[in-house]
Hints:
- It catalyses: 2 GTP = 3',3'-c-di-GMP + 2 diphosphate.
- Residues 208-347 form the GGDEF domain.
- Its EC number is 2.7.7.65.
- The protein is α/β, with parallel strands linked by helices.
- Helix 3 runs parallel beside helix 4 (83-92).
- It is elongated.
- Helix 2 (34-44) links the parallel strand 2 and strand 3.
- The chain is 48% helix and 20% strand.
Amino acid sequence: xxxxxxxxxxxxxxxxxxxxxxxxxxxxxxxxxxxxxxxxxxxxxxxxxxxxxxxxxxxxxxxxxxxxxxxxxxxxxxxxxxxxxxxxxxxxxxxxxxxxxxxxxxxxxxxxxxxxxxxxxxxxxxxxxxxxxxxxxxxxxxxxxxxxxxxxxxxxxxxxxxxxxxxxxxxxxxxxxxxxxxxxxxxxxxxxxxxxxxxxxxxxxxxxxxxxxxxxxxxxxxxxxxxxxxxxxxxxxxxxxxxxxxxxxxxxxxxxxxxxxxxxxxxxxxxxxxxxxxxxxxxxxxxxxxxxxxxxxxxxxxxxxxxxxxxxxxxxxxxxxxxxxxxxxxxxxxxxxxxxxxxxxxx
Length: 347
């Protein structure tokens, strides 16, 4: 065989024989002796395997990167990078991001040379030349079955991981749906009440200010009766978006029911809470929501809102329910005073 041919990594395919479910599996034969490579290949050919050949360590690593063989039959003694060193590299890169699991059968002409070292480095089997071809065939079949089982396990684990991630994603979606108002995208009442309990407890523990705001769209029933419920929904979404953009990220805004909204402002005292309420009220008063009639007539509808706000710590507000009632009383006081205004609870 010419020197150029010896340097080349070859791929040889034989017709399937009696290999059964293992037919078509790829076996990489690594040996610097072409006659031994041919001997092994011919002995295993009836099994219907596909073969690749390499004549030294670097060629072997190149072939592994290119074709990911199912099994490697490799001579221990080769010039330069020997079989034990190549085995070390293969097993060090056996993760999913590397070569994956590839069984390695080491072959040597010396009875005990490198056997323990090779097995300790992860070689899966060891043969001493010359070996009986029936024994080689049996060991190859055993290692390929191990490879099939390992590949199946990896694929099942991958599928399980994918299913778990999908389950977690769906669980998060369901959790978000259970905590979100479908129309406005804000938190719903149930979620808000949970947060109120948490924030009130934190405020009491650290004696930090916490303000609660209740907001009601003025004359909302008239809007619904005049322009229809679809337009009323449009108004609710516009008010929700406007209020949300006037609050901080840490503030909790929810749709409390109907045309009522409610907000928690952590670390916000009475003076700052009043400023926030006025900012929200002014933004809503500046809104113009366009109504388009069935005839195509366009009309800008102006909106206003009334707000009530209460803050703890406060001597007369010793529970979350009391804080809520105080803000609600402020809201009704704002409506009674003519709407489009803010009323603040005073201890």
